[in-house]
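Hi Y.,

Following your request, here is the sequence exactly as I used it, all 80 residues.
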Amino acid sequence: MGLRRWFIEMLSRGTDTSDLDELVDFQKVSLSRGPLQVHALQESGIQAVSIECMSRNGPYSRVMVRRRDLAEALARHDDN
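Below is the corresponding structure, written out as C-alpha cells. Let me know if you'd prefer a different format.
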C-alpha cells in the first residue's frame, strides 16, 4: 500500500460528516499534464477537473476529484 493511500485511509476512519460531492485535491502536476490526467480519470468513470494555479516555482495544475471518488482515483494512480 502506498504511503499516500495509507494516509488517506487513516484520516478517513471514524464517522464521516463531509460532503461526498466536494472537490478535493488529487494531484499537482505540470500545466501540460493536467488535461491529460483529467482525461485519463474521466475515461475511468471518475469526474475530475484541472485548475490552473501559480506558485513562485511557476504554473501548475491541481487535479481535483469528488471526495467519493478519491480512493478509487488513488488506487488507479498507484496501479500505473
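Helices lie at 3-11, 34-43, 70-79.

Thanks again,
Q.
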